[in-house]
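From the shared-data thread, chain only:
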Amino acid sequence: MPDPDILEALRSLPHFRMIDPRILERIAEGCRWRTLAAGETLFLEGQPCRAFYAIHEGGVRLYRLGPEGREHVVHNLRAGASFAEAALLSFGRFPVHAVATEQPTKLLEIGGDPLLRLFREEERLGPAMVGSLCMHLVSLVERVEELSLAQAGERLARWLLRQPASGKGQRLEVELSMSKRDIASHLAMTPETLSRLLRKWQEQGWIESRRSSVVIQSADPLSALADGEPA
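Structure, as tokens:
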């Protein structure tokens, strides 16, 4: 009998929500838990892909290295997200590096060989996973458009306003889920640009920048920036 926790984790993924319990048990037999420390590498760009992953706890940063050795963040993923499906089903190799960002980071590793066998045997499995990958592709296209078209201040304002926040009215506190250096990389800007924007907004009375959080004191100018309008 497969691990009940693995079965529950699989059921929570959009890939498998409509899958027959019998098929789900067969998928679970090819899964295992992986636990990583913060900063520990899961895989490197170019390595053969023999599984895809779902984050149960913690976080993972996907990135590529530019010719100059600079890290370019593709995605910062949190619990509930999955990744490397396309690498398994199409590319055969990982197109990015993956590193854990929190201590601990617990992943469900979905083995590739048993899953690919099931693809050939079970006709309902393919459409379910294809639908999930299409949704993921839409989010990636939106991110590319945002990074290529929006100014740095616009990107940062959008990101801040999308984060979970506590408080009421205009004064909201956003707990930063990653370091400011990683936020800058995620938003395709330098750490210096991020610091300059936060300092400027604080001087204007829009925010209060703290070590691990940002208090939004006036959301209206940030909303205007996020919409591409003058603040």
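The chain has nine helices and twelve strands.
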